[in-house]
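Moderator note: this is an archived Q&A kept for reference. The question asked for a predicted structure of one protein chain; the sequence and the answer are reproduced below.
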Amino acid sequence: MFLALTFSCFALPLASAHYPAWEVETFAYIAVGPNPVGVNQPVGVNLWLNVYPPTAVGGYGDRWDGFTVDITKPDGSKETLGPFTSDPVGGYWTSYTPTQVGTYTFVFKFAGDKLTGQPVPPGGYFFGSDVYINDTYKASQSAPVTLTVQEQPIETYAETPLPEGYWTRPINAVNHGWWEVAGNYLGRASLTGTYPKYTKGPESAHIMWTREYWSGGIMGDQFGDLSYYDGLSYEGYWGGLGAAGGIIINGRLYYNVQTPPRYGWY
C-alpha cells in the first residue's frame, strides 16, 4: 500500500499554466501634471494599467509592451509618444513639453500583450506565478485627459538645497542637483577620467558603507539627476522580524534577507 501511494504522488502532473489560456480585460489610466502649466514648461506623463505583469520579479519576467500616448495639440495637429515598455508594476513615466498655448488632449493606449515569462529568474519562478505564462491581456485605452497651457509660466518646484554640513551616501534620488557633491573616485579608474570634471571631492575621510544591501540613488558627475535602483519594487527589509526590525548586538546589525536570490541571516 505504501509503494502504491508513493507512486501515485509522483505520477500526478504539476499544473504550470491555465488551460485554456486566459484572456484578461485591462483598464488604462493616464495622469498629466502640473495642470495648468506655462508654455515651454515640461509636464510629467504617468501611465499605468490596473494590473501588473504577474510574472515580473525584480529584473526578470514580463513587462507590458506597446504603451503609446496620442496627443492632440491646440491647433489640431497630432503627435504620438512611444511605444514604451512598462516597469515591473505595470506603469511608465515620461516627460512632455507643450509648445502651444491652449488645450492639449492626451490618450494612453495599451496594445495588449501575451505573457512569455522571459527572462526566467535564476532558479525558476516562486509562488506559482508561471501559471500565467501564455495568458493574453487585452488592449485598452484611457479616457481623454486635457492639459491647459497658458502664456504665463507657473512657479517651478523648489528643490532640496545642497547640504552645508555632514551628509551620507547613497544620496536619495529625490534630492535633485545633489550630483554636484557626488563625485566618483579621484583616481584613473573613475568614470570621468583622471580627475573629477563635474564636481568637488570630499575634504575629509568618510565611511560610505560597511556592507552593501542594495545599490541606488543619484549616480553623480556627468549623469546629473539621473538615478537608478537595482532592488525589487516593494521588497521588505529585515523580513521575518516583525515591527522590531533588525537586531543590533555590540554595534552590529543582524538582518534577515528574503529577497531573491539572497536568503538567510547576514
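Archived answer notes: Confidence is low (pLDDT under 50) at residues 1-15, 185-194, 240-244.
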